[in-house]
């Protein structure tokens, strides 16, 4: 039985599909986790509110898509609307992130790091509940209206494509492309721009960076804003994925995988996050395949993802690319 | 006391402000869980973000024993025995988790414990042995229709049954205590014993080492303590009390679900209670949970004891309630929107304000103000005044 299933698994079409699906999931994970890792890398703040802000981003993006879809009919226009939504959500949430950093997190820098975790944890409660109230006031039940946002997906993204005998979804290809753009974008920002230099300097040694004349406080605010903006952008992408969509529990559903990716990669290293996202995405896809075909245990992919986290921490406590000191006491 | 107030001229105000007895039982068992969380996190400084695993282990053990699904223990096992077994099983889980987790510190420790707890959570949610529908969780079957007994096992006269809508009623000196009130005192008895046990440990030399680890672990190592063993032992003890708390929860509620026992947000609630009550003060989490539950019940309609919403409806009258405020929404609608079931919002805001402005929590702040524990400082103050 297991041998036959294994033989099935190792055929070119099956394996190819799994790999493409895995990469698509990796792209989503990279989008969800990169903001988290940027914020932790520079500021040492493990942002528990990240998932909630992703959820807010998903709702905002859905709103933009639904309101603009009336004018958009062709596939190209719809794709354009999607990018408009991403930009709007990114901008809006960046502003929100900046506001949160300056008003709430700034007073806590000279306290032990645990207080920043606690604060962002409290923030998730507040954000989730505000979203619930807003949804209640406007009578927007999570599912019905947001199917409309899913419906704005251009027709060609729904159709399956067959490349060299491997059947894939165009949506997966789209997600992979967007993931690559995000990774290259952040990488270029961190390594090629002056501001990226400040950020890297600040994450190495913020006191020294301050002594050299960098306005570290401003850098902190900008990085926090960027990280939150990225969370929102990830939310936008989730709106077009039939398995996600916008709902209040989305906050926890994205936060936990984001934690796994960030921890497995090594807290605060962007390179580690990218590698870990691929590892986690692939594991997820492989386990989903095994769950569908052989092992009948609900939640198998999720279970294995947390096992990946636990095993990584046992074997390599600082994560794949992490530095030993970061994150400890 | 409660009933006296309810029959007094301020009956509506009293009903609005005071939590019901049923809520108070919840405060007790969850307060014990929050204490056990604070026992490890507040005193050694290691944030155990997967503490819900032990709580859930305790809860599930009790229900599985009662349903005859636990190996070696039949459904006729006295509750006090399954309570102990629940605690000991939680110790085993804590030992296994702790053995690997204490190689890490800081955020990594929080994350690996969270990881272990989530593995258990997902596993329990999918394991169809524990309940017919594992996603909804198990409930106590017909074997314990009259509630679980707290007292001395095998001696009927020294046992009182607890439970929602079940349990013993007691007539004492002309007044009758309802089943829920009896549950309150019996659960409270177990919680009190556990509290004193933890109190004893904290004030022993062992507890001193725990605090030394929190303050400066390197120095504790330098003066010759094997901190790994101390941390692990403290973690196991904490796991035991968390398991007992979970067992009380299952014993009173008669059912458990993965969401209200193993999920990571349950640990989050304990964290909430600890911070509001006072991180690193043993009794603090109990007050924190009391505060938390009171706010929740005060602000939500679902609380049996009334709360702000029914009170406002009664006070404002139909005329005011139907007055439009903004955009066609009436006062009644607005109150409904803002108050109905959204207590988490206000608890969250209170929590954020506590983190920002009252970092020592309720009890910690009081202690700082009067310069010692209340038990020490109050008599001293009274004698001084005389």
Which key phrases capture this entry?
heterodimer; A: 329 residues; mainly alpha; two-stranded antiparallel ribbon; 14 helices; B: 386 residues; 67% helix; globular
Fold and architecture overview:
Chain A is an all-alpha fold and 329 residues long. Chain A is built from 14 helices and 2 strands. In chain A, helix 2 crosses helix 12, helix 3 packs across helix 11 and helix 3 packs across helix 12. Chain A starts with a helix and ends in a 14-residue tail after the last helix. Chain B is mainly alpha-helical. Chain B is 67% helix and 5% strand. Chain B has 18 helices and 6 strands. Chain B is globular, with a radius of gyration of 22 Å. Chains A and B meet through helix 5, helix 12 and helix 14 of A and helix 6, helix 12 and helix 16 of B.
The structure class of chain B reads mainly alpha
Largest sheet of chain A: 2 strands, antiparallel
Percentage of residues in strands of chain B: under 5%
- Largest interface, by Cβ-Cβ below 8 angstroms: which chains and how many residues each? A-B, 47 and 43 residues
| Helical/strand content category of chain A | mainly alpha
Helix content of chain B: 55-70%
Strand order of the largest sheet of chain A: 1-2
Enumerate how many helices of chain A there are, as a single number.
14
The low-pLDDT segments of chain A are none
Task: Please give the radius of gyration of chain B in angstroms.
Answer: 22 Å
Number of strands of chain B: 6
* Number of beta-strand segments of chain A: 2
Amino- and carboxy-terminal Cα gap of chain A: 49 Å
Unreliable stretches of chain B, pLDDT < 50, 5 or more residues?
A: none
Largest sheet of chain B: 2 strands, antiparallel
What would you call the shape of chain B? globular
């Amino acid at each position: 039985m297991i041998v036959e299933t294994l033989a099935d698994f190792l055929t070119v079409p099956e394996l190819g599909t799994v790999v493409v699906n895995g990469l698509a999931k990796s792209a989503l994970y990279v989008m969800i986790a990169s903001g988290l890792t940027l914020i932790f890398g520079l500021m040492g703040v493990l942002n528990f509110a990240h998932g909630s802000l992703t959820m807010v981003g998903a709702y905002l993006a859905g709103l933009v898509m639904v309101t603009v879809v009336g004018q958009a009919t062709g596939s190209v226009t719809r794709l354009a609307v999607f990018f408009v939504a991403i930009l709007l959500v990114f901008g809006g949430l960046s502003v929100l992130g900046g506001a949160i950093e300056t008003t709430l997190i700034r007073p806590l820098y000279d306290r032990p790091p645990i207080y920043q975790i606690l604060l962002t944890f409290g923030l998730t409660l507040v954000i989730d509940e505000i979203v619930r109230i807003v949804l209640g006031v406007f009578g927007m039940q999570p599912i019905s209206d947001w199917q409309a946002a899913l419906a704005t997906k251009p027709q060609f993204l729904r159709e399956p494509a067959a490349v060299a005998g491997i059947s894939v979804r165009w949506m997966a290809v789209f997600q992979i492309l967007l993931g690559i753009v995000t990774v290259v974008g952040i990488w270029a920002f961190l390594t090629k721009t002056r501001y990226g230099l400040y950020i890297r300097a600040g994450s190495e040694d913020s006191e020294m960076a301050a002594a050299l004349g960098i306005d570290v406080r401003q850098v902190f605010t900008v990085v926090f804003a960027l990280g939150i903006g990225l969370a929102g952008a990830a939310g936008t992408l989730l709106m077009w994925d039939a398995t996600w969509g916008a709902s209040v529990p989305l906050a926890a559903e994205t936060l936990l995988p984001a934690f796994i990716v960030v921890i497995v990669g090594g807290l605060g290293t962007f390179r580690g996050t990218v590698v870990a996202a691929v590892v986690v995405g692939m594991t997820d896809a492989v386990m989903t395949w095994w769950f569908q075909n052989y092992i009948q245990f609900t939640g198998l992919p999720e279970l294995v993802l947390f096992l990946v986290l636990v095993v990584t921490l046992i074997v390599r406590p600082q994560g794949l690319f992490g530095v030993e000191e970061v994150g400890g006491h | 006391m409660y009933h006296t107030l309810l029959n007094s001229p301020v009956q509506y105000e009293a009903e609005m402000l005071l939590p019901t007895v049923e809520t108070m039982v919840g405060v007790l068992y969850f307060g014990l869980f929050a204490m056990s969380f604070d026992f490890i996190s507040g005193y050694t400084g290691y944030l155990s973000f997967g503490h819900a695993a032990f709580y859930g282990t305790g809860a599930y053990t009790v229900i599985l024993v009662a349903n005859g699904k636990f190996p070696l223990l039949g459904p006729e096992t006295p509750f006090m025995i399954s309570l102990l077994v629940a605690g000991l099983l939680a110790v085993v889980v804590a030992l296994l988790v702790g053995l690997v987790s204490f190689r890490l510190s800081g955020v990594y420790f929080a994350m690996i414990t969270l990881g272990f707890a989530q593995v258990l959570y997902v596993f329990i949610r999918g394991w169809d042995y524990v309940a017919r529908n594992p996603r909804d969780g198990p409930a106590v079957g017909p074997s314990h229709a009259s509630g679980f007994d707290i007292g001395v096992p095998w001696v009927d006269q020294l046992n009182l049954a607890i439970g929602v809508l079940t349990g013993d009623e007691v007539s004492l000196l002309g007044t009758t205590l309802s089943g829920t009130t009896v549950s309150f005192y019996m659960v409270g008895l177990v919680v009190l014993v556990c509290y004193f046990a933890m109190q004893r440990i904290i004030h022993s030399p062992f507890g001193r080492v725990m605090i030394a680890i929190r303050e400066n672990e390197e120095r504790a190592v330098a003066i010759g303590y094997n901190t790994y063993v101390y941390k692990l032992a403290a973690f196991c003890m904490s796991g035991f009390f968390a398991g007992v708390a979970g067992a009380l929860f299952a014993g009173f509620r008669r059912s458990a679900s993965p969401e209200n026992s193993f999920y990571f947000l349950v640990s989050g609630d304990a964290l909430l209670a600890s911070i509001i009550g006072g991180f690193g003060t043993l009794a603090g989490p109990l007050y924190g949970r009391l505060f938390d539950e009171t706010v929740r019940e005060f602000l939500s309609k679902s609380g049996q004891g009334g709360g702000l919403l029914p009170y406002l409806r009664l006070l404002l009258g139909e005329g005011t309630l139907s007055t439009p405020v903004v955009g066609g929404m009436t006062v009644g609608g607005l109150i409904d929107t803002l108050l109905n079931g959204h207590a988490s919002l206000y608890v969250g805001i209170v929590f954020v304000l506590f983190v920002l402005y009252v970092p020592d929590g309720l009890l910690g702040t009081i202690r700082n103000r009067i310069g010692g524990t209340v038990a020490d400082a109050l008599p001293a103050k009274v004698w001084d005044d005389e």
